[in-house]
């Protein structure tokens, strides 16, 4: 692909499958804006699938979720460009996620999962066409062979919820090609071959897709480190390096539903509606009457986002800091930074509150209190902090399970649900989102719908 700043040529090719195999980058010119926007749209799909899988959704629910995510995010105003968007977004994210083992592993798993769902959505004819493209080591079972195996195949069909084999098509493949089906006893194995029903062939196809993509990511990484990163350091490299930690949700730079909070209410609101990362900072500020720069930025921008006005913010921070450094030193050394965050000093930039991704990716040092407690706390300290939020013991175990799996935002979501006694299907992706959703729950209890 060639990145350009103007228009690009479309790839009009009726032979291109609606489910590409992404074997090579297409001969397309891509506008710089599309390079990033297409990738972000696809990333929303992959992260939605990741969240659904991590929350333990049932297979049928995941199929519906994947279909809804794809339809919502991968549309294009021009029908002829839908396939192009699919292909371009995949190769951009391949470049983004090739750079470390951890990134490659996540991308490989999510793209393979997406491929499985999309393969399942296709017609039988489209599925057979894809099988032919992969040149799979399988062959269709003949009618005579099917009749000789019918009883065994009927047993397999019943075990996977298929009522009849009368109209089913089966294939034979070397059993080592479908290890997950063999392990789950979803195939009949005879003389080294597995008899796979058409609706189970996705396992074989997905294995081939995953193997190809895994090798391709390694090759892409070599190209990235040897040439692309340096050649594109002023244009594409900053975009690529930022995409894997991009926040994809709403903008919380301005207060949303609950437009203003006052100093007199802040203590109560902190106890009821602050996420753990902000509540910890708030508690430490009250306790030590000081926070280092990282903590001041994280908490200060959060408070700005939930509706604390500049004058109130100055009064709030001064009331705390003056107890340790004195009012005069606060005015000289710290007040400027607060005004700066509100866009009143320096470049007059209106800074936005930190997203979960930014909080999680921070690296607090000794004496720092910012960052994500689910990632940066010891297990003992995290359990104590959750107990302080009145999270019950069973919910704490569920949270810890997500933390061990490095699903920090899901751990925060479970905390929200335990604290508020309600589900949060959207998941928590931003501290200010946590606050907004919490206030909705709190307000509904104060002003119940009649």
Low-confidence stretches: 5-17
Structure annotation, total helices: 21
What fraction strand?
A: under 5%
What is the rounded Rg? 27 Å
Number of strands: 6
Average pLDDT, to the nearest integer? 87
Write the element-wise H/E pattern from the N-terminal end onward. EEHHHHHEHEHEEHHHHHHHHHHHHHH
Sequence of strands across the biggest β-sheet: 3-4-6-5
Distance between the terminal alpha carbons, to the nearest Å? 58 Å
The biggest sheet amounts to: 4 strands, antiparallel
Structural class: mainly alpha
Proportion in helices: 55-70%
The dominant shape is: elongated
Task: Give me the secondary-structure topology.
Blueprint: E1 2-4, E2 29-31, H1 32-54, H2 59-73, H3 82-96, H4 101-121, H5 124-134, E3 139-140, H6 143-159, E4 170-174, H7 179-183, E5 188-190, E6 193-197, H8 201-231, H9 236-243, H10 263-273, H11 276-288, H12 293-306, H13 310-325, H14 327-333, H15 335-341, H16 356-361, H17 373-376, H18 379-388, H19 393-404, H20 408-420, H21 431-446
Parallel strand pairs: 1-2
Antiparallel strand pairs: 3-4, 4-6, 5-6
Helix pairs in contact: 1-2, 1-3, 1-4, 1-9, 2-4, 3-9, 4-8, 13-14, 19-20
Give a written overview of the molecule.
The chain has 450 residues and is mainly alpha-helical. 61% of the residues lie in helices and 5% in strands. The protein is built from 21 helices and six strands. Helix 19 (393-404) runs antiparallel to helix 20 (408-420). Residues 5-17 have low confidence and may be disordered.
